[in-house]
Amino acid sequence: MNHQGRNFVELLALIASAKDPADEVTFKLFTLLETDPQYQKRQLQMIGQIIQGAAQQGIKLDVAKDPGVHDRWIRTNNGWRINLGRGLDIFQKQEGGWWDCKNNGVTLKGDTTL
């Protein structure tokens, strides 16, 4: 779960840096709550921290519980579905603790334009 949360925070940081500060962006995160009570507590704490950090950057994060999912995912307004455990960390695995959205940096590789 750690790397999925970090990947999601990096995506939110990228969006925050690209959007007009006056605009609010809304994301809906689909996730499955863990069954182990200790793991679930950590999961909910992580999600709460991400929601607070995103809100400070003008990003509203809605979380929906979906018991049928294996992986957390988001869907963009153009129909793309991004699996957070697989779709955002294809180049390198990150190490370390949680980051605030505003303290993240994202390096785009290749001929990527936003």
Report on the structure:
By secondary structure, the chain is α+β, with helices and mostly antiparallel strands. The protein has a single domain (2-103), classed as MITD, C-terminal phospholipase D-like domain (Endonuclease, Chain A). It has 2 helices and 4 strands, in the order αβαβββ. Helix 1 packs parallel to helix 2 (37-56). The chain has helices spanning 2-18, 37-56; strands at 25-31, 59-65, 73-75, 81-83.
Task: Chart the SSEs and their pairings.
Elements: H1 2-18, E1 25-31, H2 37-56, E2 59-65, E3 73-75, E4 81-83
Parallel strand pairs: 1-2
Antiparallel strand pairs: 1-3, 3-4
Domain MITD1 C-terminal phospholipase D-like: 2-96
InterPro entries: MITD1_C (IPR032341), MITD1_C_sf (IPR038113)
Pfam family, one: MIT_C
Write a brief caption for the model.
This protein is an alpha+beta fold and 114 residues long.
Through-space gap between termini: 27 Å
Number of strands: 4
CATH architectural arrangement? 2-Layer Sandwich
Quaternary class: single chain
Biggest β-sheet description: 4 strands, mixed
**Any idea what the radius of gyration is?**
14 Å
CATH superfamily: MITD, C-terminal phospholipase D-like domain
Tell me, rounded to a whole number, the average pLDDT: 76
| Number of helical segments with 4 or more residues | 2
Strand content: 15-25%
State the secondary-structure class: alpha+beta
Low-confidence segments, ≥5 residues, pLDDT <50?
none
The succession of helices and strands, N to C, reads: HEHEEE
CATH topology name: Endonuclease, Chain A
Percent helix, as a range, is 25-40%
Question: Which CATH class is shown?
Answer: Alpha Beta
Pfam families: MIT_C
Domain MITD1 C-terminal phospholipase D-like: 2-96
InterPro entries: MITD1_C (IPR032341), MITD1_C_sf (IPR038113)
Organism: Rhodococcus qingshengii
